[in-house]
Design goal:
Largest sheet: 6 strands, mixed
Radius of gyration: 16 Å
Helix content: 25-40%
Number of helices: 4
Number of strands: 8
């Protein structure tokens, strides 16, 4: 909490699809369209939001910060990609086997260069960054917020280039 400097979470029921759509609209996203991120770059956003997901318990302000940070990082990673693409998915993850946690999963992936393998194990550590002007706190704060929400976050490289961030929200409204 010291480095993240986040106030205590104001937990409430949230529709993750609505929150994701709200954040995406800040990037100019409209369903089925290209997104102008700045005057030089367009990023194709493929958005697959599963209908009828249970509501999650969370702080909308903190989760908005998480989503914006992850999308901003993905956009920056695509700066030199000829056909930049970000794929966003939400889905219900059932507990199909013993020991597997169920919840609402959010996955954001891109077709950028991915993470350097040596950096991958340390991306959530404070002050670790590859950006010339970065503080190295973005992903550390993201992880802290997700963990404070009882969730899990994983980052990996995709086999066919790019990065993949997966978040599992386990505090959901029972139907």
């Amino acid at each position: 909490r010291e480095y993240a400097q986040t106030p205590p979470a104001q937990m409430q029921l949230i529709d993750i699809n609505e929150l994701m759509s709200e954040v995406l609209s800040l990037y100019g996203w409209e369903p089925g369209g290209q997104v102008a991120m700045n005057t030089l770059q367009k990023v194709n956003m493929q958005v697959f939001l599963q209908a009828d997901l249970p509501l999650i318990f969370g702080d909308p302000t903190q989760l908005r910060q998480v989503l914006h940070n992850l999308l901003s990082n993905a956009v920056e990673a695509l700066a030199d990609v000829a056909e930049p693409c970000i794929v966003i998915r939400t889905a219900w993850r059932a507990a199909q086997q013993e020991g597997r946690t169920e919840g609402v999963r959010l996955v954001i992936s891109d077709n950028g260069p991915g993470f350097d393998e040596q950096l991958l194990a340390r991306v959530f550590e404070p002050y670790v960054t590859t950006k010339a002007t970065g503080t190295g706190l973005g992903l550390a704060i993201v992880r802290k917020i997700i963990e404070e929400h009882g969730g899990r976050i994983d980052i990996s490289n995709r086999r066919d280039h790019g990065a993949r961030i997966s978040i599992l929200f386990t505090r959901v409204q029972n139907s």
